[in-house]
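Pasting as-is:
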Amino acid sequence: MRGRLKIFIISIVVLCSFVIASKVNAESNSVIINEVMWAGSTKSSHDEWIELKNIGREPVNIAGWEIKNASRGETSLFIPTDKEYIINPDDYFLVSYYQKGEVNTTLDTESDFVTHQLSLANSNNGDLVLLNDKKEEIDKNIGDSWPAGNNTEKLSMERIDQNTSGMDKNNWQSAYTAVNLINGISDKATPKVSNSHFDFKPVSDFNAQLVNYINIDNFVETDAIVTDVIDGDTIEVNFALGTQKVRLIGIDSPESAYSSDFELDEPYYLAAKEYLEENLQGKTIKLIIPYSINDRYDNYHRLLAVAADTENIYNISMLENGFARTFYLNDFYEKIDFWITIENKAKNDYLGVWQDFNNTCIEINELMINPAGPDEENEWIELYNKCDREMNIKNWILDDGQHGSKPYLINHDLIINARDYIVISASESAIILNNSADRARLFTPDLNIGYEVEYKEAKENWSYAKLDDNSWIWTPNFTKGAKNIIAIDNENNRDDYQIVANLNDLTQIPKDTKVKIDGVVNSEPNQIAKQYFYIEDETCGVQIYSYYGNFPDLKIGDRISVMGQLSDTNYLRVKVDSVSSITKIEQSVNFSVKKLDIKDINASYSGLLIMIEGRVSRLSGSIFYLSQNGSEVKIDVKEQTGFKRPNLEKNDFVRIQGILYQSSQGNLSILPRIIDDIQIINKYYNDNNLKIITEFNTLCELNDEIVKVKGIVNSLPGMLNARYFYIENNKMGLQIYSYNKDFPYLALGDEVEIIGTVSQNGLRLKINQAEDIKIISHYNSLTSFNIAGMQPANFLGILVFLTGIVEEKSGRSMILNCRGMKYKIYLKSNNSFKSSGIKIGDELYVVGIIEKINNEFRIIPRDTNDLVNLTKNLHQKSLVLSPQKNVVKNDILINNLPKSSKYLSKPDKSLYNDTIQNILKSLAIVCVLMVVILL
């Protein structure tokens, strides 16, 4: 009996040991990358290390694990399997190049694994991926550079919130304390202990005005000494966390030459900086900092704060004195109306950056671009004050466009009297204008463009002058520092010019006759050729020709009068001798484009703007041909247009707009004026030009190319937009777009094969017709992905879900806080969403597609079932209607089959693991008790 009892006890012990041992890897996904010393140390550039942390409740054996540099495609380090490498709960595992005590390391704590495999580049390498022994991804922080840390000061990169994704760049900080490092060094890092952390205090009542400008419940405070003033909105402080750069929230001050787009000190940069220096340098102040860790740092890892003392709130003082403008106000933190009121008062009083520049008095009036003699000595820009009061243009800026000469800051008093002129020479400004083409810009002190003029092909010793009607012309009669006087060719005033009422009457007039004609500009000068452009009326079109290409500034739709010589009666050309031969009569005249069949094109339409459609029959360089019912016409993309022929294939169906041109030999061709004059209506597909894509992330390299893809329909046309829907494949999404809204009947869960053209850098696939989509199968599994705590940018076009608290609400937009991260939710009006019942503080369960709009990622619910207000006890989850045949045609959602549904979301893996762990713990306790009782 005793033998059997011993066998039973041993069996129980073995079973318990197995159960307890099985816990070791039960929570492998609880291990995170917690700190990285990628910069090396002051001792050695090889003194690098990576700290892992177990944030779970069970020990984890990481034998056989590896950390990879994703961008380099290689293993940074590999944990061997020669023994167990256990990380206990809430404990650390340090992998380093050196061990404590070696001469080249600053570590003053024992490493858990030392290897010379560890090698971390200092730039373009912020992309570590932690894999377990099954090659499963456990944690990662991927980016084109390290999100924190410092190579110069030798600061490690620390994770701020261990429960927030490592993919969030704002979840990393540079270490500001030193623990477990040797004495006598300036390096900052916290190997094998908690990352740098400081407990801020609630905001006190030291300044009674604070409550007027900020929501103090959303802030904390600390004392700090100002050690340096960087500029009018950035200071450096020293406090319990060490030395830290601080960005004053809610304001933006003028930049120094180092940061300015103009590469010069912006107006009032020094005044703003000196004001802060006078009031803050060396003083102890309060820093009022956002309570949320995720909102405490900007993209440059500067601490965001309000700086204040008992008398002043310096963020507000900068606004009051006109040394700053409001910047990125957030009603959760700042009381926006009060900040705007302070700014408007400074603006109305013309203080600082708001000095009296908000007017339209000063204009650029004349340019000498290509003078006789050296340009750097003889070029000039003339300014004119058209108002009845004098103007001081100190702190205004002149430049010649981006990437041109260095901008010229007028840093001294410069008065322009009422209705008077000044000339700024190139020798003074160092601005050299290009002869071929360039622009001149005048900026007010708030860095807005006060006036801008653009030109092409400057003729030597001619100026470019502004007329009273604000148009510009080239003239040899330049008037430096005086009113522009455009000399009129006396010959043009003679009575021997024959007035022609209709342009087609020119065919009845002898060659070389001097004529006066009127017409509407249908192609701009220098658009398709340097020496000519075209006008038209209701009867025909005419080419306007100048040997020197000297034309006034004309736009399509301008009605003009032309005095010139009829130089050709076959294709109707009128030659002009000077700019003054052309007079603008009227602007923005509407005229219709004549649509023709190719077979109907003939010389009587030459000079007209026409439209045709046809299939590409031949291609050769910039020239291609369209055919239609056996007729063919040549399309010629001229080099002067500045664009190249689009990527066309034979048999593509194309719509063309352009001028019908007749050569001296009588040959006809169509000249597109701009790239939008060529529209591809339908692509022609064949096996030679069709790429089959299995991974959507490769599409970014194939813009404008034709591809075939497969995926599962996760939203229907009409749900998010009438012109598109989404498919997904291997946790990647793709927008399918049709301008004509031409789609087949589709259902959620359909697997489809699609042929289309890649656009928007791989984010969209454009189709031409419903036949481009082939349905392969129905009722495929479609499961939403829980992105709580993750960056939405990684799930573009994917069906996702999360639960969060409404923090902000504006119209159809809401901000949800989920695990410390903020997600924007947008409710489309076409889905009959009613947001009026949703309040700030409500807990919502949201399912939707992630879209990117204006560089902002937001979750778009597909219909009303995708949004549940949990606060109102609506516990039903959003359903995927995969078996239900929800079909769309012509923007109408048709329910034509009985409803059958399944839940979108799968059980949360972490919740499942917690349940298993609790069972295992209970079983282990029972085992121990049984052993004690039996013994």
